[in-house]
TrEMBL record:
Protein name stated in the entry: Formyltetrahydrofolate deformylase 1, mitochondrial-like isoform X2
Pfam entry (one): Formyl_trans_N
Protein keywords: Hydrolase, One-carbon metabolism
Listed NCBIfam families: PRK06027.1 (NF004684)
GO biological process: 'de novo' IMP biosynthetic process; one-carbon metabolic process
CDD domains xref list: ACT_F4HF-DF (cd04875)
Amino acid sequence: MNNIRRFWSSSGFSSQFVRLGYRNYTHNYSSINNNNNNNSVSSSFLIHGIHVFQCPDAIGILAKLSDCIASKGGNILAADVFVPQNKRLFYSRTDFVFDHVKWPRLQMEEDFLKISKTFNAVRSILRVPAIDPKYRIAVLASNQDHCLIDSLHGWQDGRLPVDITCVISNHDRGPESEVIRFLERHGVPYHYLKTTAENKREGEILKLVQNTDFLVLASEFLRSYGKDIINIHHCLLPSFKGGNPSKQAFDAGVKLIGATSHFVTEGLDAGPIIEQMVERVSHRDDLQSFVQKSENLEKQCLSMAIRSYCELRVLPYEEKNTVVF
């Protein structure tokens, strides 16, 4: 890694990569004390905000962002900055808490917009999870259930900060299947659309997902969708193509397995990577434990990718890369 850590100057940060603060902001805010003036802010007034910023690199960007939050009584809990070497690009993600009565949501948008105009930002996104609606997603599932079921349970128990609008599949699951019974209990529609090589049913799929924010588990690129699509695949590719790749890898004595979650693009399984996970296997694993480990990795990797996306941790970087804070 060529990341270089530098420190504050009078003009702010101009670093390759800087990470400040702490990550336990999801817990209770009992109080935030300022030792300089002995002020304390009651937890009842504080809610969590996230802001991501992308613009041409310049002097004083982080100082302006920090001042914007501090001048409204907000407190920064974590700040991540990335400036790629010799690229003159600036990326940042800031977690902060604020009093939404003293700093209303619309005013906050206007304040960050002013900074965007000052630095000619190409991306300035603000999210307040306690106020903003959850991301609406549709799940496009194949005949494999493990990632679909894990995503449904993650939505139900709150691990995934999304609302699932529907599940679409080219596999006709029976009325007694775990997936169908779960969806019926929670009022989520299931749409079976039989597809062929000649008819991908793209027009019908687009109608079903037109009110979503992004899609999950869709392996096919939907040219007319116009929003992000996240998919998962095992990391046995490209060595083990075709049917039953786990069996092929097991028979070949593979010692390291993994999963990759990525954005879907026109190239098959070639989109920018969001998350990757690996695990060792050995001669002690039989085929059942081998497959179970592989499926567990896929579930964990997809869940992490969805959460990272919803928490504004994923930013596009160049054509085939991502910044993941």
